[in-house]
Sequence to fold (233 residues):
Amino acid sequence: MDTVPALLVALVTGWFTVLVARQYFRNHRPNLFFWSVSLAFSCLASLAYSLSLWQTPHSGAMFLIYYLLGALWMPALMGLGSLGLVFRPRTVNIVATIVCILGLIGSVLLLKSPVLAAPLQALHGGAGTGVVQQGSWLVFLIVLNSFGAIAVFLVAIMSAVKAAKKQAPARFFYGNLWLAIGILIISAAGSAARLGLPQLFWITMLIGWVLTYFGYRLLTPAAVSCLTLGTAS
Fold:
């Protein structure tokens, strides 16, 4: 039962990955590529978390995969997808290079950090804050998480405002609004865990991803991206 919310997150993000990947293979837009990989990482991270808790004792290797894909890489890749809608490819490539460098350094530092046995074995459905010994990897995680959350949220809000100003169909406005709210809730999940409410982590993540998914569905198929109203370069 501890892993049911995580498995539901894997189900939602897995289906979400399929939908966005289909769009990418039809249109080959870089933003869709980044989103597809980000969503796939979220799905795999949720599965890795579940596999870690299913084993006795809990698997430190699976937990590290969950943290690596879901906590370190997923938000930043999602942010790159959003930047691809408002900036030229050259600018996005520069930012993507910086993200990759930071992500690779953070990955090495994270994978070299010890997994603390006691917190891992005591984990029953929370985020796992405190399972990996804190170190310099946390700086890279915070930077990449912040970048991803801010980029997605601001682009979605900007899109909603533009839709309202141009008097576009209501689904453009509400789709981007739900995207922004969903990403905000996903970002808040980690904060809830650090504030002493770890049991709310996966439920919060699930709510955020469901809202993000419905926001995306409102924007498709006529609007594949958040900014098809003219902000994409």
Q: What stands out?
A: Helices lie at 4-27, 30-54, 60-86, 89-112, 117-121, 137-165, 170-194, 201-219.
